[in-house]
Design brief:
Largest sheet: 7 strands, antiparallel
Strand order of the largest sheet: 2-6-7-1-5-4-3
Distance between the termini: 41 Å
Mean pLDDT: 88
Structural class: alpha+beta
Helix content: 40-55%
Number of helices: 11
Shape: elongated
Low-confidence stretches: 376-411
Number of strands: 14
Length: 411
């Protein structure tokens, strides 16, 4: 499995200038490639292939006075910019044709030097390496100081240098790590994600919603007000923008750290984890949008998915339209929809349910049923004798019944 390991880096002022130069050159090559393909399409010409694009925009462009400064950065950075353009086009066409599921991808857009995130990538061809003193050596940039929070499990195959909106620099290493299966356990759990409680487990455990964004609202409001008072284009406004970005980055980092601590605990204690496939994009368009974004369910379920694959656990999503909150987990009776203010309800069978715990139990039951079906269990309903009023029999029914009794599939 390939994983990313992110570390904070502290470049010197000279290295910051070199990184800014590399960001700009990669951005120019990306925009030139996008413009070339758009012009070819507008003229009715065939699409410019990758090799021709690299030859025209990198090799030949370095010999021109307008692009001679492209030679000041590593050629691998420029090649990876074109690789990003090709990946963007592939994702767009795969989404357009329906081969790529999920949210639709827009066509590639031009990059701007004012974008909140700037990034360049070095592959093994660039011959980057981690020195014995812990510094990261990058071609034509120098030796960067890295804050090693933990050691790398293996030699990295590539590294991406990222500058975020808060002005921080990170080194993101791609490392191929072997799976580390944990000892099997008997427990399985269903998780109902919500806003009142972040997660309710089928065993009755409730995880309170931390609401990091809500807790930082007062500070964020003050910083946004200070930003709105600054004059457009002034240096003070640029400083205020960075302060706002730092405040939002702190919220995101705190939330991510909390989820990274909760997700392995759930994976470690359970052999199988089942969650509901929520439509986060749809919920983010409602009046609960701020709370939905603050909960960050999508990132949490993504953590559960890859950590389950790494540690030999089972992770699955059930259908988002399953009536988990309307079905009695004791008798299976469908009791009908209920408003959100109804947190507990009683079934005619005599069971009294907590809304979220009951939903988590139903999520677990639905996940188990899906896992059994995926393993080849009998999913067709058992044969039922015909009623006496069904007098008609279609030709070949006896032959089909005999073949079914022998276990032979019928076509």
């Amino acid at each position: 499995m390939q994983l990313r390991f992110n570390y904070r880096v502290d470049p010197t002022p000279g290295q910051r200038e070199a990184l800014a130069r590399a960001f700009g050159c990669a951005r120019v090559v990306f925009n030139d490639g996008l413009r070339t393909r758009q012009e070819a399409r507008a003229a009715g010409l065939p699409c410019v292939c990758d090799g021709e694009l690299s030859k025209r925009l990198i090799t030949e462009a370095k010999r021109t006075p307008e692009r001679v400064w492209l030679g000041e950065v590593s050629a691998v950075v420029l090649q990876q910019a074109l690789a990003d353009l090709n990946a963007a086009y592939r994702n767009f066409f795969a989404s357009l044709s329906g081969k790529r599921k999920g949210r639709k991808f827009a066509p590639p857009r031009f990059r701007s030097r004012k974008d909140n995130r700037q990034a360049i990538r070095f592959t093994a061809n660039a011959r980057f390496r981690v020195l014995d003193n812990g510094r990261l050596r990058l071609p034509k940039i120098g030796d960067l100081t890295v804050r090693w929070s933990r050691p790398l499990p293996a030699e990295p195959t590539s590294v991406t240098i990222v500058k975020d909106a808060a002005g921080r620099y990170f080194a993101s290493f791609v490392v191929a790590t072997p799976d580390e299966p944990l000892p099997p356990v008997d427990a399985e759990v269903g998780i109902d994600l919500g806003l009142t409680h972040f997660a309710v487990l089928s065993d009755g455990t409730k995880v309170a919603a931390p609401r990091f964004l809500r807790r930082a609202t007062r500070k964020l409001r003050r910083l946004q007000q200070d930003l709105s008072r600054k004059q457009q284009g002034s240096n003070n406004r640029k400083k205020a923008v960075v302060e706002v970005a730092k405040a939002y980055a702190k919220v995101a980092d705190t939330r991510r750290d909390w989820q990274h601590k909760l997700s392995p605990r759930i994976i470690r204690d359970n052999q199988a984890v089942y969650v509901e496939d929520l439509c986060v994009l749809g919920l983010a368009r409602t009046r609960l949008a701020k709370s939905v974004h603050d909960a960050a369910w999508a990132s949490f379920t993504a953590m559960l998915k890859y950590k389950a694959a790494r540690y030999g656990r089972t992770f699955a999503r059930i259908d988002r339209f399953a009536p988990t909150s309307q079905t009695c987990s004791a008798c299976g009776r469908l009791d009908g929809p209920k408003p959100l203010n109804v947190r507990s309800w009683a079934c005619p069978c005599g069971a009294v349910h907590d809304r979220d715990v009951n939903a988590a139990i139903n999520v677990l039951a639905a996940g188990r049923a899906e896992s059994l079906n995926a393993c080849g269990a009998q999913v067709r309903p058992a044969p039922v004798p015909a009623q006496r009023r069904e007098t008609g029999v279609h030709p070949g029914a006896a032959r089909c019944s005999a073949r079914s009794a022998e276990g032979i599939p019928t076509l």
